[in-house]
Amino acid sequence: MVKPTLLVLAAGMGSCYGSLKQMDGVGPSGEAIIDYSVYDAIRAGFGKVVFVIRHSFAEDFISVFSKERFGGKIEVEYVYQELDTLPEGFSVPEGREKPWGTNHAVMMAAKAIDTPFAVINADDFYGADAYRVIGDYLSTLEGRSNSYCMVGYEVNKTLSENGTVSRGVCTVDENGNLTSMVERTKIERNAEGVIVFHDLGEDVALEENTPVSMNLFGFTPDYFKYSEEAFVEFLSAESTKSNLKAEFFIPLMVNRLIGGGVATMKVLSTSAQWFGVTYKEDKPQLMAKIETLIEAGIYPRNLWE
């Protein structure tokens, strides 16, 4: 049975959080969220982790998340996302400073991955069950193409107590496959205790168990070729040329392939609770939750001893 690969998107600097939060210690022995992600992936049968980083902080990042850190329990590789990593014939538009987005980051790993793979954000704590669920599914996809998956979290398990959040709200058919994913912003629990989003000019309620994407996707390697083709179209579009902040997001690519009937995406359920550090105020709460998981025996007090 094939061992899937974990692709960690770690090239972004957290604008809301205000620091390189991918390297920030949240565990009792200084573990970062990334440490828990890799630990959970190893337990779930992943055989390799690929980090997408930038040259500007590569030395610091690799000094922390070195190949030796994980005790030889998983193969480690680093790839780089830079603004000027573009297809032949394209150049960075004058005045463009913003990175090209999450799906551009995924594309950077094309030469490093030849197995089914999961994509995660470096600064999201997904939970052990989520890795088990997606790892089990990906391990069945060897030799297959156009069969993707994602972990769908219940929206009530993805909120922050310190501000609104943005989530990809998913619609799922009777076979458990994704039919659409719409980014909703300013999601929170209102004064009446109802989960709502505000981005349509009014409060729109969401059911507690509405599945949402936390950017925990599973793909087979054919996804890279589709992405390369779509990225050329994205860069060529007038809407991109006129917008120096336009980004090539994973959900854009997923909706393109699902909507075009090219691929299917199974929405996998998990019992996991998402934790994150969208805001600085989230960190002490995350640390307390990790301590609770340690006391429950889910994690050792020192992950890599």
Describe this structure in words.
With 305 residues, the chain is of the alpha/beta class. The chain has one domain: Spore Coat Polysaccharide Biosynthesis Protein SpsA, Chain A. Helix content is 26%, strand content 24%. It contains eight helices and 13 strands. The chain has helices spanning 33-43, 58-64, 102-107, 128-138, 222-236, 238-241, 250-259, 282-295, and strands at residues 5-9, 48-53, 75-80, 117-121, 124-125, 147-154, 165-172, 178-189, 195-197, 204-205, 211-219, 264-269, 275-276. Strand 8 and strand 9 (195-197) form a beta hairpin. Helix 1 packs across helix 4 (128-138). The longest helix is centred in the last third of the chain and has 15 residues, at 222-236. The protein is globular. It starts with a strand and ends in a 10-residue tail after the last helix. The model is unreliable at 13-19 (pLDDT under 50).
What is the C-alpha radius of gyration, as a whole number of Å? 19 Å
Strand content: 15-25%
Helical/strand content category: alpha/beta
* Domain tally: 1
Which homologous superfamily in CATH is the superfamily? Answer: Spore Coat Polysaccharide Biosynthesis Protein SpsA, Chain A
- Enumerate the spans where pLDDT stays under 50 for 5 or more consecutive residues: 13-19
Order of helices and strands: EHEHEHEEHEEEEEEHHHEEH
- CATH class, please? Alpha Beta
Distance between the termini: 28 Å
